[in-house]
Amino acid sequence: MAAVSQSFKTELLGAIPSLRAFAVSLTQNADKADDLVQETLVKAWDKHESFQPGTNLKAWLFTILRNEFYSQMRKRGREVQDSDGIMTARLAVHPAQHGQLDLKDFRGALEQLPEDQREAIILIGASGFSYEEAAEICGCAVGTIKSRVSRARARLQDILKISGEDEYGPDAISAQVTGSNAA
After folding, report:
1. Fold of 7-76
2. 3-class DSSP state for residue 165?
3. pLDDT tens-digit profile of 129-151?
4. Helix (H), strand (E) at residue 132
5. Could you point out which of 41, 51, 61, 143 has its C-alpha 20 to 30 Å from the C-alpha of 164?
6. How far is CA 157 from CA 39, 125, 132, 149, 175, in A?
């Protein structure tokens, strides 16, 4: 087994918060998300030789995490929900939010999206991946990701009854998720 480079270790550690956020969005459970991230890190560490230096480590890790999640789901045969609202209750509204969009309402709307659309909008809008990177993570065409994100944005705007920026505020995160141009 070859030695793990310091840059790999540093990037791996730096990706943990993003991996955890994505894992929580998939599992809807903090403990299961932590287990999923841990399993992802173990697999990445064991397979570090297959990572191509100079490519996007974060995208590689997200792909491992996503694949591990779906493997676990196939084993369990069902999706875990946040039926008691524990995860929703832990969320907080970003202080720069000026509009009427309440994070609890947004979380509820996000949960109403089909899984493939929710995954795409989180990768693009919340995790900051490019369409190409998200397509690679999801194992589908770039056009498919663009379509899923577009449908997710339209559905979120419909669910939340958003017709313009004045209804949710000018912050950059809201703009990314809804697909508008914020200042």
Report:
1. Rna Polymerase Sigma Factor; Chain: A (1.10.1740)
2. helix
3. 999 999 999 999 999 999 999 99
4. helix 131-138
5. 143
6. 35, 14, 24, 12, 11
What is the chain's length? 183
Domain ranges of the chain: 7-76, 94-178
The percent of the chain in helix, strand and coil, each rounded to the nearest 5, is: 70, 0, 30
The residue with tokens 């997200």 is: 62
Question: Options 1.10.10.10, 3.40.50.1010, 1.10.3720.10, 1.20.1630.10; which CATH number does 94-178 get?
Answer: 1.10.10.10
* Amino acid letter, 64: I
User: Which residues, including other chains, have CB under 8 Å from residue 158's CB and lie 6 or more apart?
Assistant: none
Summarised one tens digit per residue, pLDDT across range 9-51 is 899 999 999 999 899 888 888 999 999 999 999 999 999 888 8
Amino acid at 1: M
Can you tell me the distance from the alpha carbon of 7 to that of 15, in angstroms, rounded to the nearest whole number? Answer: 12
Residue 40 exposed, middle or buried by CB count within 10 Å (0-12, 13-18, 19+): buried
**What are 63-117's pLDDT values in tens digits?**
999 999 988 888 776 544 555 666 556 655 544 544 445 677 888 888 899 999 9
Structure token pair of residue 43 = 């697999």
